[in-house]
Design brief:
Blueprint (H helix, E strand, L loop, with lengths): L1 H6 L6 H14 L4 E8 L8 H17 L3 E8 L7 E2 L1 H12 L5 H17 L6 H14 L1 H12 L4 H7 L15 E10 L2 E12 L2 E11 L4 E6 L1 H13 L13 E4 L6 E2 L4 E7 L6 H8 L2 E4 L10 E5 L2
Parallel strand pairs: 1-2
Antiparallel strand pairs: 2-12, 3-8, 4-5, 4-10, 5-6, 7-9, 7-11, 8-10
Amino acid sequence: MYALRDATSTVDSLPLITGSIISKKGAESLSALVLDVKFGNAALYKDLGSAKSLAQSLVTVGNSLGIRTGAVLSRMNCPIGRCVGNALEVMESLECLKGRGPDDILELVTSLGGMLLWMTGLAGSMEEGKKVIARTLQNGSALEKFQNMMIGQGVTSQIAASLCSTYADYHSILRRARYQSELETQGHGNTHTHTFTQVQIHKCTHTRIHCMTLAFVSAGTVLDIDGMVIATVLHRLGAGRSKAGDPVNHSVGAELLVSLGQNVEKGQPWLRIHYETPVLSAEQRLSLQGALTLGPADQLLTQPLVAEIILP
């Protein structure tokens, strides 16, 4: 079906998107559903209005099928959390279940979960529901439930326990990419550079084998990190598919080493790329160097992650 939509240029058709999403949810015999509809540079819909049209369509159709359906409209300009890519996001999700996740992920998870608890009558309000979700992340009950879910879906009890252990060695189970490279900010007068350091992992040792210097902007406060730029480079490195059947390299990804509003000093690493190709191309390096926007702290625009909620 998706291949047909691709061939007919109807991938972004609102009715077909609605039908594709809600039909899957309807098949699960759900009693309630909360949908996270994203907008921004790194999302399908770039503005709130377009995303709201999809969210309203999903909510309307879901409720018409007898599924109590609501939606959260959330911003996605910068990456959410610190990790991008299949294996790295699994690790970060597990860290979140252990109560150690980044603040923005925790905000989104508690908002979605809190709304669902309120809609199903398990909490008196969305705020009360958010507190319940936060407690389950802190007291370990959410992690225990996920561990049981993994076992129920065929993961061995040993691997499930290892992943959910307090100080899990994730890379003993989830393969690490062969190379890791860090971008570093460097400022000197009006001339500023980024340095790329490539590290090859071999027999548990770190050996620096290649360095590259990239022109970039001044050190300062992190004003923006363009998630779409990072996602596009990772896609080309094998983290995603261009068409059905393409292989996916689950170890390819990126780690953000800084966050919005943080002051970045000269020479401070801000991004680590995990990849398998021997050397990032010049085009990819130029793309990555444009993903980070630095400037004076008073230019930072702070906005809540959740922009709007659509109730059933």
